[in-house]
Structure prediction request, 277 residues.
Amino acid sequence: MNIPASYILALSGVLFTLGVLGVLIRRNAIVIFMSIELMLNAANLAFITFARAWGPATEGLRGHVFVFFVIAVAAAEVAVGLSLIVSIFRTRQSIDVDDINSLRG
Amino acid sequence: MSIDLILFISIALIAIATAISMLASRNAVYSVLFLVLNFLTVAALYLLLNAAFIAIVQVTVYAGAIMVLFLFVIMLLGTEQEKIGGRIQWQMPVAIVLGLGLAAELTYVLLSGAGTSGAAMESVGAEFGSPASIGRILFSEYLIPFEITSVLLLVAMVGAIVLTMKRKRESR
Prediction:
């Protein structure tokens, strides 16, 4: 791909900012969770870009290996997080984060 | 304007448009589908960046497994509609100001960071980013983190089952 690496890093920054905005604006817990996935994805894009731009000369494929681990951890995180959301919905009948305002189960 | 640049700009526009639509749609099912589209465009970008293995992992694990899990939970709970008007009135303007601040910071870091020059990337061989080369480094140098990842997935699986298990009422 014959374009500067900074373009792709800029796209990664824009996607990360949109993920942060989603966490700040939306109140549905599942959509907030999806915005976190968007941020992880933007970080992965930056990893791949750095590996492509500076990897062949120095570190090789370590960026790719790191992205692989990030995806595995994201899968584990989604499993636990969604079961937490299901468990909260059972007790409060809502997953709106405005309604979840006490620690009592 | 080279063909690579046109390809990148169209992919980037699709990615940003799907991310914004994901935030803007009121129905959570549409949000999930827009996010799947976003992940697919990012996978196409990975392919352009010579990361074939990571692109396929992105499609199967992220766009396939994880987003289907999201869809499943949304349809299980039936809470896809969000109420209009929140409890905090100033949430939206403050969020937009904070988001613009973060965007400004990221732009500053990217423009002033070392190494992010405007030069195009040099070409690499077909070996770069192939499953064989990643597997070689993953199973030699990163073997212990790989094994720890399997333990982590097991813990997440057990945790998900325990959290959603219906507990029997303790009766005396």
